[in-house]
Design brief:
CATH class: Alpha Beta
CATH topology: Rossmann fold
Helix content: 25-40%
Structural class: alpha/beta
Order of helices and strands: EHHEEEHEEEEHEHEEEH
Distance between the termini: 37 Å
Radius of gyration: 18 Å
Length: 214
């Protein structure tokens, strides 16, 4: 199942516009803030698929039937670009435990660059709903490598949250992920170029957030 935000007009369109605009994105603080804001939108969208329980509230003036989130999902960020987007999810799911996986390309310029996994800190996922957060789903290598790390840890539900995705990356994750998942994405773009960057995309989300890495 794939949910695409820009299929329906919403404030997420404004955030995507600013993230893509080559002049606006020169402001790193604004770029990070827009990732956070679209993270909030994605989190609210995903919240509609989570489990809730019926409760009663004692208000100052009476009793009201209501619903509470049954259990906060576990949030997993793919470093480093995932951090600003993750902050938006943390604004919505304030009680969530969080995990972190360091995944990055080690062969730039290749059609399917290799991915290095050099750091992970994962909480207990048994019988928990997990949301994996990464702004760009390009080749799908980083996402599949992350999901392989999570496989067998007992999660009961899996959601993938991205800002921009390429069709090739979506297909690669579908073909190589052994766990059922739901993908939530701001926009599905045209394709990957010869260097495996999303076209038209928005550039390197990590570099635009934090500066060019060596």
């Amino acid at each position: 199942m794939i949910h695409i935000l820009d299929k329906t007009p919403s404030i997420a369109d404004q955030y995507l516009y600013e993230l893509r605009h080559k002049d606006i994105q020169k402001d790193k603080a604004r770029f990070r803030y827009n990732l956070k804001r679209i993270g909030i939108v994605l989190a609210v969208e995903i919240s509609g698929q989570l489990k809730y329980r019926e409760v009663q509230i004692d208000t100052p003036l009476g009793i009201k039937d209501a619903r509470r989130l049954d259990e906060a999902p576990v949030l997993i960020s793919i470093l480093r670009a995932g951090q600003p987007l993750m902050e938006g999810f943390q604004e919505v799911f304030v009680d969530s435990e969080c995990g972190f996986i360091g995944a990055f390309r080690v062969e730039e310029g290749h059609a399917r660059p290799a991915v290095a996994m050099r750091y992970q800190a994962i909480p207990d996922l048994r019988n928990r709903t997990v949301i994996v957060v990464d702004p760009m789903l390009a080749t799908g290598n980083s996402m599949v490598s992350t999901l392989n790390e999570l496989a067998g840890l007992g999660a009961s539900g899996l959601h993938l949250a991205c800002v921009v995705a390429a069709p090739e990356g979506i297909d690669y994750v579908k073909e190589n992920c052994s766990m059922p998942f739901t993908l939530w994405v701001g926009s599905v773009d045209e394709r990957l170029n010869e260097k495996a960057y999303i076209v038209p995309g928005l550039g390197d989300a990590g570099d635009l957030s934090y500066g060019i890495k060596l």
